[in-house]
Batch of 2 targets.
Target 1
Amino acid sequence: MRSSVVYHAVDSHTEGMPTRVITGGVGVLPGDTMFERRQRFLAERDDLRTLLMYEPRGHASMSGAILQPPTRPDADYGVLYIEVSGCLPMCGHGTMGVATVLVETGMVEVTEPETVIRLDTPAGLVTTRVRVEDGRAVSVTLDNVPSYSHALDQVVQVPGFGQVRYDIAYGGNFYAFVRLEELGLPFERAEKQRLLDAGLAIMEAVNEQNPVAHPENPQIDVCHHVYLEAPGSTAQHSRHAMAIHPGWFDRSPCGTGTSARLAQLHARGELEVGAELVNESFIGSRFTGRITGPTTVGDRTGILPQVTGRAWITGTAQYMLDPTDPFPAGFLL
Ligand code: PYC
């Protein structure tokens, strides 16, 4: 066996969506904040992301997180989210996977019935509360970064669909919300390619015709997620298919998407502080979200979102790279 590198991983899934948690082998990434580390990682070490996420070690809807020492004194670990699509500022299902791995591998001091872990993420500090029974992480509740509704009732021109109405909100990433009834598309897994094509076309139109920027961090300036709302969804129980750049569906109910959904519903006057939302994914798995209070995001009115879900460890691995491997940065078909 020849290998120039070895990356240690604990693989997990959160309500169906994988998180490959890289626990060793990367070293400390340069940068004074996790956002700066993210920017430098994308510029200088993106081949490591693609090696760990793309085929043949990953696949077209892979997701992961690299553990780091924190850059701030109030956090226990730093987290860099790695995806097939790039490095997200924040990832809810990934955070639940990380918290579960930290508890079940004993990488944090575990207290029962609750273990609190503070994570330094590129989007800000995220506190997780892990419910622990007999050493097992039973559920994870995360206090996500402040979220806000960016705009309601926007319109874009989308090839094949004409004018499409949408709301857009931020919950650690930007999310465009579109009702499937308006697109005339059914909420069925058998129609997943048509749904994905529609989501990607809307995403492109939103980014071209109505670009976004976070009021406090203008470098967060892209909408790579489209929430295709299923018919019959309400402010208490919402079902959706989440189309994500460059072409996959979130298997989980999407933690940052749930946070953005809470902000959108609050801005529409449909969900009050304290009320709960059950958010259901395309495969039927669920997160519960709630608004814990009001806040501001720059000069915008925002909310403090909390999201609860579950994650399971699926395996451990050492990922290697043989110097003769013809695909040192992986590939996607
Ligand atoms: O859970 O926040 C999330 C997420 C983002 C992309 C995939 N999952």
Target 2
Amino acid sequence: ASADDWSKRSIYQLVTDRFATSNNSVAPCDTSLRTYCGGSWTGIIDHLDYIQQMGFDAVWISPIAQNAEDTAYGKGYHGYWSTNLDALNPHFGADSDLKALSKALHARAMYLMLDVVVNHYAGVPTNTTISPANLFTLDYSSLLPFGTQDDFHPQCFIGNSNDQAVLEQCWLGDENLPLPDVNTEDPGVVATLNAWIKKTVSEYGADGIRIDTVKHIRRNFWPDFVKSAGVFALGEILTTDPVYAASYLGAAVDGVFDYPKYYQTVTAFGSTSGNLSALQTSPSLPALAPPSAPGRRVLTAAFLENHDQPRFPSYASTDTALTKNAMTSVFVGDGMPVLYYGQEQGYQGGADPGNREALWLSGYETNKPLVAHVKALNAARKLAIAKNPAFLTTQASWIQQSNPSALMLSKPPILTLLTNIGANTSAVQPTWHIPAGMYKPNTTLVDLLACQAVVVDGGEAGGGATEVRAQGGMPQVLVPASMLSRKGDGACP
Ligand code: ABC
Ligand code: CA
């Protein structure tokens, strides 16, 4: 599938080892042990209803390759510590299970996104500090399909460096668990990786790939790799800098995770005194992207949580109003929304590895407030796309509000009202000002979250200017009532 196809989708990101076990067995899972808890590809197949019923039509799973077993930081249950790209991780199931997952998704018209790691492997050191140039002894022959030291960059750690050459050619990890950096300067290595991604995508019927550590490989490596994949490629570039993130957009990969917006969103809604300004003033990534080939679609992915960041409520504590506002801005703003499994269950784990809880411990309960919230947000987004195809290509714009804890985002046909006042009932609720001229006087709008009507003022003087008072710190997602059908299409019948 292309970027265009993906742009309409909502992605559910899961950690394969933590999402669902085969046969619904309920094993304990202590995240601090950094070991396998028993999730499998078959487990995912058995819980596709759960994912689909929330309105998701794509699933991003953990990297599938065989990983290092026992390391100083536990086992490779997350999948990012490859040892053999040509073998599957046996903890997640058999080859036939992964193929069955792909088939089961496609039978529901859902997409499969594979996570691919080609920047590095994991190498368990057998001896440290041999010489400054050879920091440790590694069994390179066990890192397949490469297998020789020349296939990797010389030993050096990235550490805290921001130097682009160091980021690209030194190693992630540390002395306890070095991540041998693949020599992507070598044409033979590059050819092997391009052939590998082509084969992997076709073998497992992937509709798109999430590419790990994009900023750690030279920029001009990526176009051929993405072309070999032949499907939409969404890159991870972990940065707070929009200009840096955007420089990869189109030029290296089709889409990037909007990490800058993630940081701004956490700043804005992470507390009731959060600063809302960066979120409103930061330029959007597509606007900063280098000019791409005519007609080429570039995409960003919006998210509030992932496997590398503390879960949102671990910043916002238990204030569900803040969480709901932050989630709303992700789903109905710019970019393809990505929800990290467990957010819908209100999971609150902190930094890695605490943020990788087992979902089976929640019982996959669907009558939870955040499950309903996610459902409503996916439905709102689908309605907006159906009613206005330009929704996907029109950039959202912030409408300045005088109240310091109120935000208003316009992305037709949706007008989103956000606040970081929080759930505390004694807080004075902010008022949003819908400017005159936006809607005809007397238009009825419906908040798709509470299914409540808001009527635009008819008064001569105001010309449709309307004040809306927040309730309980909750966000509102407004569309004209005329867009809703009586039958109900998921969004407020
Ligand atoms: C394990 C343990 C951790 C332990 C660590 C030393 O070892 O679990 O508890 O602290 C995988 C595993 C991890 C594992 C790592 C290392 O490997 O999932 O559990 O950590 O062995 C990708 C994947 C990620 C994966 C890897 C490595 C790469 O999504 O899951 O991790 O295979 C860098 C990379 C980025 C990478 C990330 C983990 O590390 O660029 O691709 N993600 C700054 C740098 C970033 C850097 C980040 C690390 O620090 O600019 O390049 O990301 O945290 C500030 C933040 C900064 C931040 C800046 C931009 O903003 O405080 O951290 O970024 O505000
Ligand atoms: Ca590298």
